[in-house]
Structures are given as C-alpha cells and as structure tokens.
C-alpha cells in the first residue's frame, strides 16, 4: 500500500552541522534502542526537486521514502525495492510483487501486479516489467501510468540495448526457441533466429546493429552466433565433438566496437589423473602446496577466445589458468595469473604480464615480477596502452611499440602507504584515464596529478598538501553508469577534463566532504566541514545532495544549488535523538616512542561532567580515529559484540586510537601506541585510571592478547577471534585461500616482513602464548566454533594457557558461527556478556553468575 505523509521540514539558513539541539532529557536504555534507524540516500529526481531514501530499523523491514525537498510532501513504501525516478514519476517494487508507479505532479498512483523486476526504455516513456509466470517469464510494456501497451509471453531470457530502444529476447514455443528483438518506439518485434537448442547469453553490441548469443546444450557442442540486424547477415561457429573444446556459456560475450569480432571464453575439461585419492602427497618442492594445487586442478582451463565471423576463423589465446583482459583498442589481450602463492609468504602473486596480439598471435613478456592486485594495473578504455605500478613508481606500456615510459620519475612523492609500515602496501588510488586518452590522473597521499602518457609533463591539479586535505576522485560518482564486464574490469570510466570532477575530501582532523574541480582550477568546496559527508548525488542542472552526520548529530540529507550556495536540510533522521542525553566526540593527538604523532577519537559519555573521572574502554584495530564523526545507532545486535555508543550512553568514555606499527615489532608497537594513548588520556584528567578496559576483534583480538602480556594499565580485557600463537598460525593452512598462512605474517597484517627462520626472536617476542604468564588482567575470550578466518583453536589455546597458569579468564564459543556472529540471538548474547564483563570489572557491579561460576 502507498502511504502519504505530510510534515513540516525546516529549511535551514546555516550549514547542516549547526543545527540547534533540543535539551537532552532522558537517559537512553536498551528498551528504546528500537526507535533508532539508519538513513541511506538512494536517488534524486532529474529536476532535483525530489529525493528517495531508505530507513533501516534494527530487526524490522526497511522502508523506502520519497520526499519533495521544498514542501511538506512525503510518501513511504514499506519494504519497497528498486526505487527509480523518471520524468515526473517514481516507481518501485513492493513486497507483494506489485510495481507501484506514482505521478509526482498529480499525486496519483498506479499498480502492476506480479512484477519480479522492471527496467526503463528510452526517454523513460516505457516501463518494461518482468512478470512472474512459474517457469517462464512474461514481459509487459507499459507507459508511466501503468497502461499496458504490449505483452511478450514465454520468455526465457531478455536484454535491453544500451540506448534502451530495443529488447532482445528468447521466446519458447514447445520444444523450439525463437530469438527476437522488439522496437519500443514502433511496438513491433522482428524474428532473428530459431533453434531446437536453448539460446542463452544474449549481448548487444556497442551500437544497436549487432546481437550475439550462444545456442546449444550441456551435453552437446555449443554454437556462437553474430547477427547484423540491418542486413540480416547471420554468422555462426559450431564446435565439433572431436575438438574437446567447450564454450563457457554462463560468461558474458563481448562484441567488438566494429562488430567484426566476438570475444568469449572456452575451456578444456581437466585431465583425470590416476592419483590414489585415499592419500595426499605433499612435496616440499611443489610450486603450490597440495590443497592449492588440488583446488586449481578442479578448475576448468579457460582460454580467451576470439571468433572472426567474416574470416570464418576462431582462435584461442593465452595459456591455461591465465586471466584475460582486453585492451581498449581491442587489438591486444593482457594475460596474467591471479591467485595465491602458497609457498613464498606472499598473499598476492608476484606475477608477470604478457601481451598477445590478436592480429599476429605474437606473445610478449611486458612486465616481470609485478603485483597485479590492489589496483596496480589499469588498461586504457580507448587505446592499446596500460598503466602499472612497479618499484614504487607508475609506468605506461604501449602495446604497439612495446615501450615502457616512466610517468613519475620527475615527481617527488609517495604513491603507496609503505611509509605507514605495510610490507605489501596499498597504492593510494588506481589511475583514472582522461577521455582524450592522452593522460591519466594519479594519486599521491593528498593530491591528484595530471600526467601525460608520453612522460613529458606532470602537473599537480589539487592543493591538498597545503590545505592538509586528502583529495580523491569520488569513485561512486566516477563509476555510477559503468557496466561491468570481466574483460574490461581493469578499465575505469574515463573523465573529461573540461567537465566537473567530483572529489571526496578528508582533512587532517577528520573533516569530511566533497569538492568540485572545474576546468583545471583548484578544488572548490561543495560539502565540507567538521562532520562526515557521503553518498553524493547530483543533477545535471547543478543541484547537489549528500548525507551529513556527526557523532552527536543524526544523519541528515542536505542539498545545495552549487558552490558558495546556501546548504539546506531536506530530511532529518532519528528525531527522538534530541529527547535523550548523548555524548560528544573529540580528536586528540599523542606521541609514540619512535617520535610519530598519532590520533585517536575520544567519545565522551552522555551528560559528561568535567568534575568527574569516568571508566574507559579502548577499542583497537589498526586505525580507528576516522570514526570520530560516525553517528552510531544504539543496538545489541553487533557482529563482534561491542557498540561504542551503548557504552557512552551508560557512563563510559570510549577511545578509538590509531596504532603506529614497526616492522618485526607488531605486537610491541601496538602495545606502545595504546599505552601512549592511555597516558594522553590520563594527562587530560578525565579517566579513572583504575577502571580502563581493552577490547578488540580479529587482528584487534590478537593485539588485545599481546597487550595483556605487557601492560598493567587495564582492569579488564575482551579478545574476540584473535590469534594467540604466531608460530602455530604461521605453520598452518589458510581455511579460506587453502595456502600457507605465511603470507599473513611476512607480507601482510602481521608486518613481520621476514620468515620465521629469519626472525625467530621477533615471532617469539610478539606471540602472546609465549608470555601468557605475565597476564594479570581478567580476560574474556570469545570465538565462533566454525571460524574459517582465525580457527577457534587459537582462542582455545589461550584459554588453556590461562587455565594452566591459574589466571582469570572465561572462554565463550558460539556454535555454528564464523568469524563474525551472524545470528541475532548470538549477537545479543555476546553484547550482553561483554557488557556484564566490563560493568563488573570497571564499575564494580555484582558479577553475573556465568562470570564467577565454579571459580
């Protein structure tokens, strides 16, 4: 049912963060947590006068809303999905499979029943609705008022052309399949192809001239087809049984821009080995350890395949188990292997990139010894070039000339976060190509650089370094209309430099927001300040929307008509917030022993009194100060058992610190960072030094385990799903990736850099289990019994150590749960037990029976 609501929305003259707040009255308790909801901005109308958003309540169905920003008019759609604005209309699917269409001018609504999905035709004048019809689909074409214009029955598959003028579909009549396409303007369909075999995987070409598809069955060789619709020319290629080649019919085809080639995958079935399945044979000189090797042997050997209909030729490129990407000019294929190196201690393959000409078949080794993952390779969307990251620098490779050009040799700066102590660092951002194909935008820590692909010039086009702001191209805006294809997944959407570029921005003191880069000028502020801004939407006419929030101010949807224009509030969430006492957040800076300055977010308790000292809980996991402006919804349904705002509402300080790591001293440097943060808080005179707790999950759980062996600052600790024995974990198999766990220690989060045999003392020094005798803090340990990321045995081992040493510890194991708890009852149970634990040891409340039972 469609509901209409009217209420007054005040349009503020000041920026969103300056709202007045009603006097805080009541103390918020768990029974009222259900009043809170999350807010997500989901869309705006083309004229910018309407917006859509979703309210998410804990444990209740989501509700979709639309709101007219300059009036009191609001509609809600309980459990509505797939909301879309068209010219003067809004539509969505209701939970009873009814498509609701609302005329935004007349306020009249229309319904189409039995709708399982829908799409829009050209100029939004037609709605293509897929109707539920048991085994087959029916397609109903209507206008914006729900009036049926045409129907297509017994459809097995359909796809809409890029310009949304045509629908290609397969109609089943008895045992025969008919391939057709429908013209939305003329309301006429045209026969294309008919077969007794199933027709699948339809794809339109870049223009509406071509259609490609497969026909065949699971037991017979497949056939690939290409049809030029204007001329009716139909070409096909059928694989023979003796070819031992199968078409991978579930993966997308791709038609070349010129329409003269079709790209797809074929495969050969894996070879059956005569190996005895009752015994596993593990060789120390295997390139991949046995579990990885067996997993790879079960994969089909896919090959990048190209069919040239006019020439009647078909050819497979690359080699078995290689990943293929297509160059933007479509004259070359880029090959490399993705996956786990289970022997060398690297999670990410140190790989080689091969380029193969689709014209000559010549294969060329382009780059040797490169890490492929983490956005380090980008292929031009329009040319036969690629940009890659190698030896701390960006390079361009021209596939035609086979030449490498250094792009950053003349630029001083860092392009990855290696300086933040990561053994396999992340680059700051993947390259963004310009629409003319001559340049790329590269990202350092603060700024964007416009760099010519011939290496002749490089220009910094933002001034983030001087302003203490980190500017990034907003990826949500960049790829908003991108259609993903496996062959072009390394081709981001290019940008036109004469158009607006939208930048996300983060300040040195955790300010957040958006800037606009116009015609090469320095960035100008759109939404930015001492708050968090996200979910940017805008219209072509220049109206901009964003979700804005702070720790002590609920999220709101704000809008403005451009640079230096007034910012208004369209929608506020959680109006009940002002009726309850709430805390506030502050950013502090502290210095660690190696001289670095780090930051932490301090969350103050509701009703904070300067004359009092409060108990405090520190949550740790690498860097958490970014949460300073996060508005946290109070809830006891938390995957890891801890919600900071629950504690600030109950008289606790909460500290969210950053940690400065040192290679080979991971646990030690974490302990030093946390101790430095604690000392800073003590100097501020706001904490009761005898009542400080520490909590962490996963890697944070490891950090808690270790810090407990070195620190006497804490009255209680909680460790969730944490590693306790570094050596045991190092010499184990990863349950997810199937390879050795060594990569996590030598080249990832543990930052040990060296193998165990090259740094035994470091592994010993940073392993909690070897120092458990020094733990004197009550420790609550929890895990999921079916944890595939950190085995429950790591938590059990620490429990046994504490038991043997007669230390104060309790272990909670949750049955049928993984690394994060998923069942609501398990989440609630853990949240309450963690709260009992801290309340007893930090507030002195009477212990729950489970805490002291049998002790």
From TrEMBL:
Keywords: Hydrolase, Signal. It holds the Pfam family Peptidase_S9. Residues 663-844 form the Peptidase S9 prolyl oligopeptidase catalytic domain. InterPro entries: AB_hydrolase_fold, Peptidase_S9_cat. SUPFAM superfamilies: alpha/beta-Hydrolases, DPP6 N-terminal domain-like. The keyword DNA damage does not apply. Residues 1-20 form the signal peptide. It comes from the Bacteria. This is Prolyl oligopeptidase family serine peptidase. It comes from Flavobacterium humidisoli.
């Amino acid at each position: 049912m469609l509901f209409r609501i009217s209420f007054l929305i005040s349009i503020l003259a000041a920026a969103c963060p300056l709202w007045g707040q009603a006097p805080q009255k009541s103390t918020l308790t768990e029974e009222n947590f259900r009043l809170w909801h999350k807010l997500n901005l989901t869309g705006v109308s083309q004229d910018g006068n309407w917006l859509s958003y979703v309210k998410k309540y804990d444990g209740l169905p989501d509700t979709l809303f639309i709101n007219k920003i300059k009036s009191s008019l609001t509609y809600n759609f309980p459990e509505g999905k797939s909301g879309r604005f068209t010219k003067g209309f809004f539509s969505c699917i209701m939970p009873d499979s009814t498509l609701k269409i609302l005329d935004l001018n007349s306020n009249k609504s229309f319904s189409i029943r039995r709708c399982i999905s829908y799409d829009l035709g050209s100029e939004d004048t037609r709605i293509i609705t897929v109707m539920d019809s048991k085994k087959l689909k029916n397609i109903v074409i209507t206008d914006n008022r729900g009036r049926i214009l045409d129907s297509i029955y017994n459809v097995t598959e359909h796809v809409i052309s890029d310009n949304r003028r045509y629908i290609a579909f397969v109609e089943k009549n008895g045992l025969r399949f008919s391939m057709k396409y429908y013209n939305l303007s003329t309301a006429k369909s045209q026969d294309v192809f008919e077969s007794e075999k199933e027709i699948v995987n339809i794809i339109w070409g870049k223009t509406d001239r071509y259609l490609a598809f497969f026909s065949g069955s699971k037991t017979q060789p497949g056939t690939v087809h290409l049809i030029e619709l204007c001329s009716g020319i139909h070409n096909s290629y059928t694989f023979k049984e003796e070819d031992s080649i199968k078409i991978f019919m579930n993966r997308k085809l791709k038609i070349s821009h010129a329409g003269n080639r079709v790209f797809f995958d074929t495969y050969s079935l894996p070879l059956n080995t005569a190996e005895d399945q009752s015994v596993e044979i593990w060789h120390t000189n295997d390139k991949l350890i046995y579990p990885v090797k067996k997993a790879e042997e079960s994969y089909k050997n896919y090959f990048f395949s190209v069919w040239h209909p006019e020439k009647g030729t078909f050819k497979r490129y690359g080699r078995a188990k290689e990943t293929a990407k297509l160059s933007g000019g479509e004259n070359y294929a880029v090959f490399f292997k993705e996956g786990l190196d289970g022997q060398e201690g690297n999670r990410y393959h140190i790989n080689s990139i091969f380029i193969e000409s689709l014209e000559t078949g010549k294969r060329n080794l382009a780059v040797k010894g490169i890490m492929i993952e983490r956005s380090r390779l980008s292929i031009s969307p329009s040319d036969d070039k690629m940009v890659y990251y190698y030896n701390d620098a960006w390079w361009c490779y021209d596939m035609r000339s086979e030449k490498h050009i250094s792009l950053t040799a003349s630029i001083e700066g860092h392009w990855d976060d290696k300086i933040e102590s990561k053994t396999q660092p992340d680059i700051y951002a993947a390259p963004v190509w310009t629409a003319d194909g001559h340049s790329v935008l590269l990202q350092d820590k603060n700024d964007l650089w416009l760099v010519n692909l011939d290496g002749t010039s490089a220009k910094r086009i933002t001034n983030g370094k001087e302003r203490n702001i980190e500017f990034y191209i907003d990826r949500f805006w960049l790829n908003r209309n991108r259609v993903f294809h496996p062959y072009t997944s390394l081709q981001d959407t290019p940008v036109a430099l004469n158009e607006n570029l939208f930048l996300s921005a983060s300040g040195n003191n955790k300010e957040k927001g958006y800037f606009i880069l116009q015609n090469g000028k320095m960035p100008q502020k759109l939404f930015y300040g001492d708050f968090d801004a996200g979910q940017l939407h805008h219209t072509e006419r220049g109206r901009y929307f964003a979700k804005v929030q702070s720790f002590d101010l609920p999220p709101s949807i704000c809008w403005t008509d451009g640079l230096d224009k007034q910012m208004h509030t369209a929608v506020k969430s959680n109006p009940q917030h002002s009726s309850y006492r709430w805390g506030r957040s502050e950013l502090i800076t502290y210095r660690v022993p190696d001289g670095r300055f780090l930051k932490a977010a301090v969350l103050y308790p509701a009703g904070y009194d300067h004359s009092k000292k409060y108990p405090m809980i520190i949550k740790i996991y690498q860097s958490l100060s970014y949460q300073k402006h996060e508005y946290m919804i109070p809830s006891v349904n938390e995957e890891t058992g801890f919600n900071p705002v629950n504690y600030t509402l109950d008289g606790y300080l909460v500290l969210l610190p950053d940690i400065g790591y040192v290679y080979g001293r991971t646990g030690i440097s974490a302990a030093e960072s946390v101790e430095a943060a604690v000392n800073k808080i003590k100097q501020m005179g706001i904490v009761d030094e005898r009542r400080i707790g520490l909590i962490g999950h996963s890697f944070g759980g490891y950090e808690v385990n270790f810090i407990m062996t070195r620190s006497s600052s804490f009255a209680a600790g909680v460790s969730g799903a944490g590693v306790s024995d570094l050596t045991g974990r190092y010499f184990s198999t990863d349950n997810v990736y199937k390879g050795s766990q060594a990569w996590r220690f030598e080249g990832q989060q543990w930052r040990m850099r060296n193998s165990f045999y090259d740094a035994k003392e470091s592994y010993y020094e940073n392993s909690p289990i070897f120092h458990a005798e020094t733990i004197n803090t009550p420790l609550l340990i929890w895990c999921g019994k079916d944890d595939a990321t950190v085995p429950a045995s790591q938590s059990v081992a620490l429990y046994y150590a504490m038991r043997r040493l007669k230390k104060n510890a309790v272990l909670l194991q949750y049955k049928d749960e993984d690394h994060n708890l998923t069942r609501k009852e398990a989440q609630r149970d853990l949240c309450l037990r963690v709260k009992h634990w801290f309340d007893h040891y930090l507030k002195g409340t009477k212990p729950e029976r489970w805490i002291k039972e049998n002790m």
